[in-house]
């Protein structure tokens, strides 16, 4: 079917014609049919089938012609920044003749410009879930204003863990009966089905089989080659086919960087695209590739989805993908919008084990081509080494591409830190570069605490050695005092050795401790005190001083009176026993 057969808005038809669209793809024709029936869309469609144009045209028509959606906004949710930018470009192309403001919102860039775009008014909002959630929490986006919601590549959103965010956004929007929802996914899994059943209203189902994409429109070839010959074969293929534009896919970012550099050394202008690049640089590379400034793009699977390059002639799988679905997404970059393309895969001993899964998934045995000697071209970069200096590499952390010059030097332990880095610190912890590194100042001596310094100063001040310590020397002792101290120590040692020798010669042993022996500090058990009565004390003193010991009667009388009073006090203080009822009632 042709676009002119549908009753689209007049200005929208001008935009479609200006974009060069004439015949509808199958997914576009089915989408437009359900659009005019007033139903939601639930579609299985691979990349390169024209689904972006399908939902953008549908949204513009509803906002321009349908009474329920005039004045309402459209929200498009995409999994990646590249896909969001791609949708924005196509929307600007199709809506060129329409008075709608379009904007894309994603992470990796500042908030200020995007917030200004929202405050100025945006009719078509295209964004990734993370940034949309941020703007929703800050009040910059009111989801109640959206009447149309489009979810692109839902399966990939689920794989990236965005399902909770999707549910959060959809719950904030108007009920499903009051909005139009379109969901597109490469596979109709159970998660996609559950989301459609929960948030779509009477959707029309569209299924575009992936075999139609991979088999009918793309010519595929497979070469078996060793890892050490892959670059030479790639150069030979590019020389033979001479494509206008091509994307070379690798499994790792390090390989992508290396392949792009080797292509440059062999005369091909190439750029590498990977997830670790800053967002501005990624966008610049994509724009230069689309504009034809970059003829060859070497990329990881970050470019396998959402990257649309007009008239891309060839896709080369430098590495067989480890995920069979990524094979379909990779080669889907070519043969877009009904055009033809070519996909060549290089199977080496490292990644050939992923080939059976790929062929099973596409239900096709990829034709094997023979590479003769003429197809191998000399690699001018052979013998060169190319290392990706990313954020995790040593080169980037040190700010230079070589190791520290102090490696393997005496005193170093294979790194940038000296082995005895504290050996030239004084007692206060300050750096003293004039101090020699010897045993006199060990490296493990810690600086003194403030309290320790105070005590040390008091002791030295009392001994008269504080001034000497300030000078960095130890207090000096006179030679006479040294000799006297030495003689005292020697005499004490001689006495110990004499006692030891005497016990050995006489057979005496060192007396052992007897726990039953009376202690010298223990008091005499017969001794009395003021707590004893007068008779006991008199008996004690007569036994000690003789029978002639006498005491005056007045003292005895006073002592007896005191004893009687003490006894009476003890009796008065004795608590009265109370019965059970008395303890309760206080009686």
UniProtKB/TrEMBL annotation:
GO terms for molecular function: ATP binding; hydrolase activity; nucleic acid binding; RNA helicase activity. Residues 1-29 form the DEAD-box RNA helicase Q domain. The keyword ATP-binding applies. It is an enzyme of class 3 (hydrolase). A motif (Q motif) lies at residues 1-29. Residues 409-418 have a biased composition (Low complexity). Transmembrane segments: none annotated. One of its GO terms (cellular component) is cytosol. PROSITE patterns: DEAD_ATP_HELICASE, HELICASE_ATP_BIND_1, HELICASE_CTER, Q_MOTIF. Residues 388-408, 419-435 have a biased composition (Basic and acidic residues). Its EC number is 3.6.4.13. InterPro entries: DEAD/DEAH_box_helicase_dom, DEAD/DEAH_RhlB, DEAD_box_RNA_helicase, Helicase_ATP-bd, Helicase_C-like, P-loop_NTPase, RNA-helicase_DEAD-box_CS, RNA_helicase_DEAD_Q_motif. Keywords: ATP-binding, Helicase, Hydrolase, Nucleotide-binding. Gene3D superfamilies: P-loop containing nucleotide triphosphate hydrolases. Residues 488-503 have a biased composition (Basic residues). Pfam families: DEAD, Helicase_C. Residues 32-206 form the Helicase ATP-binding domain. Residues 388-451, 466-537, 558-587 are annotated as: Disordered. Belongs to the DEAD box helicase family. This is ATP-dependent RNA helicase RhlB. It comes from Spirochaeta isovalerica.
């Amino acid at each position: 079917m042709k676009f002119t057969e549908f009753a689209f808005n007049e200005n929208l038809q001008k935009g479609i014609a200006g974009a060069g669209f004439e015949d509808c793809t199958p997914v576009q024709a089915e989408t437009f049919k359900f659009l005019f029936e007033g139903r939601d869309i639930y579609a299985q469609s691979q990349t390169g089938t024209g689904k972006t144009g399908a939902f953008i045209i549908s949204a513009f028509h509803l906002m321009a012609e349908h009474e329920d959606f005039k004045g309402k906004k459209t929200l498009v949710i995409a999994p990646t920044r590249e896909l969001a930018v791609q949708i924005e470009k196509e929307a600007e192309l199709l809506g060129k003749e329409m008075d709608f403001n379009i904007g894309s919102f994603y992470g990796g860039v500042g908030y200020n410009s995007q917030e200004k775009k929202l405050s100025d008014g945006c009719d078509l909002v295209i964004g990734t879930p993370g940034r949309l959630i941020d703007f929703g929490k800050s009040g910059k986006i009111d989801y109640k204003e959206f009447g149309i919601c489009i979810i692109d590549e839902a399966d990939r959103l689920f794989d990236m863990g965005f399902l909770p965010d999707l549910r959060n956004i959809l719950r904030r929007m108007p009920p499903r009966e009051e909005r139009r929802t379109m969901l597109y996914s490469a596979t109709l899994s159970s998660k996609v089905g559950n989301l459609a059943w929960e948030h779509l209203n009477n959707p029309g189902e569209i299924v575009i089989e992936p075999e139609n994409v991979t088999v009918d429109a793309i010519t595929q070839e497979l070469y078996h080659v060793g890892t050490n010959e892959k670059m030479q074969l790639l150069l030979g293929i590019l020389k033979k086919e001479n494509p206008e534009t091509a994307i070379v896919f690798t499994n790792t970012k390090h390989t992508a960087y290396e392949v792009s550099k080797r292509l440059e050394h062999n005369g091909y202008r190439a750029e590498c695209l990977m997830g670790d690049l800053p967002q501005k640089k990624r966008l610049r590379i994509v724009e230069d590739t689309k504009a034809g400034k970059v003829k060859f793009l070497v990329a990881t699977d970050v470019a396998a989805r959402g990257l649309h390059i007009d008239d891309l002639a060839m896709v080369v799988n430098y590495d067989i993908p480890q995920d069979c679905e990524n094979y379909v997404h990779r080669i889907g970059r070519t043969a877009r919008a009904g055009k033809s393309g070519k996909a060549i895969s290089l199977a080496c001993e490292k990644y050939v084990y992923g080939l059976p899964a790929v062929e099973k998934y596409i239900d096709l045995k990829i034709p094997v081509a023979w590479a003769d000697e003429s197809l191998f071209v000399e690699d001018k970069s052979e013998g060169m080494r190319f290392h990706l200096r990313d954020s995790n590499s040593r080169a980037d952390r040190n700010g230079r591409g070589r190791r520290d010059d102090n490696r393997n030097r005496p005193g170093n332990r294979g790194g940038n830190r000296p082995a005895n880095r504290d050996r030239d610190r004084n007692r206060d912890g300050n750096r003293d570069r004039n101090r020699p590194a010897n045993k006199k100042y060990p490296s493990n001596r810690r600086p003194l605490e403030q309290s320790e310094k105070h005590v040390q100063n008091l002791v030295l001040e009392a001994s008269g050695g504080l001034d000497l310590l300030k000078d960095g020397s130890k207090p000096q002792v006179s030679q006479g005092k040294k000799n006297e101290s030495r003689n005292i120590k020697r005499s004490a040692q001689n006495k110990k050795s004499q006692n030891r020798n005497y016990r050995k010669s006489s057979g005496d042993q060192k007396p052992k401790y007897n726990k039953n022996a009376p202690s010298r500090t223990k008091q005499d058990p017969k001794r009395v005190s003021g707590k004893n009565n007068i008779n006991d004390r008199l008996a004690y003193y007569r036994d000690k001083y003789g029978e002639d010991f006498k005491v005056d009667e007045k003292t005895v009388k006073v002592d007896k009176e005191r004893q009687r009073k003490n006894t009476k006090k003890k009796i008065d203080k004795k608590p009265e026993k109370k019965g059970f009822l008395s303890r309760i009632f206080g009686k």
